[in-house]
Amino acid sequence: MLSAALLRCSAVSSSPWRRARERREVGPGTEPGRDWPQDWRLLARLQANDAKAVAEEWTDLLPPTQKLLDALREARRTGEVPDDLVADERQCVLLERINPSVRSASNKRFNGWIGVRTVIRAVRQMHRALLAPSVSKREVRITAAEYTEAMTPLITRALEAVQQALEDLAIAPDDIDSVLMIGGTSQIPQVRHALGELLGHDRIVDSGLCRPMTAVARGAAIYAAPSTANSATTATSPS
């Protein structure tokens, strides 16, 4: 399998490298040392999702590492990724950074994930465009119609990504029970209306049922609570 997990590959592990202890401790987030072999420097950076490493020149790589690098470069060039690359979900972020439009010919789960990431980027871009501070501090008044007209291209771009994600996952709007929209942008009437037109207005959950502006932060706090409690228990337990 083509994978940045090649750091554990016997062919690479057997490469001449005196600092065997460092080799055993290599993992995601490890900073490559200056005296590391080329293979280990490259693979450590790929494990850290460093897409820039793919574009750089590498010499004297072992066959497994060179095969992985060639496959990643081909995915960057064509936007098509082979099945053995997406078989390891840990590489999804790296592949997206190499080419945000990358697609698999058969892995619908990967394509769906890429579609969701595309939606997120489009929504963030729309959010920044709407909330960007004006260069001029003078007051500007626009009508509701002008506001809608200015937003329409951004909303359309975001919905195209939603539609693509549905197609990649082979999901029809009728297969969706409900849609909960959170975040500041999701409360803009034009955005809610446009998504309702695509997925069905009856599926859009009433924002009054949650706190859309703080839902993500609240969810993260709830998720973190058990681990925090366990850490506190461990720290206070007698040795």
Record the SSE blueprint.
Elements: H1 10-13, H2 20-25, H3 38-47, H4 52-55, H5 63-78, E1 80-81, H6 83-86, H7 92-98, E2 103-104, H8 108-131, H9 144-168, H10 189-199, H11 215-236
Parallel strand pairs: 1-2
Short description:
By secondary structure, the protein is mainly α. It has helices at 10-13, 20-25, 38-47, 52-55, 63-78, 83-86, 92-98, 108-131, 144-168, 189-199, 215-236, and strands at residues 80-81, 103-104. A two-stranded parallel ribbon has the order 1-2.
Describe the fold and architecture.
By secondary structure, the chain is an all-alpha fold. The protein has a domain at 1-90. It has eleven helices and two strands. A two-stranded parallel ribbon has the order 1-2. The radius of gyration is 23 Å and the shape is elongated. It starts with 9 loop residues before the first helix and ends with a helix. The model is unreliable at 10-21 and 232-239 (pLDDT under 50).
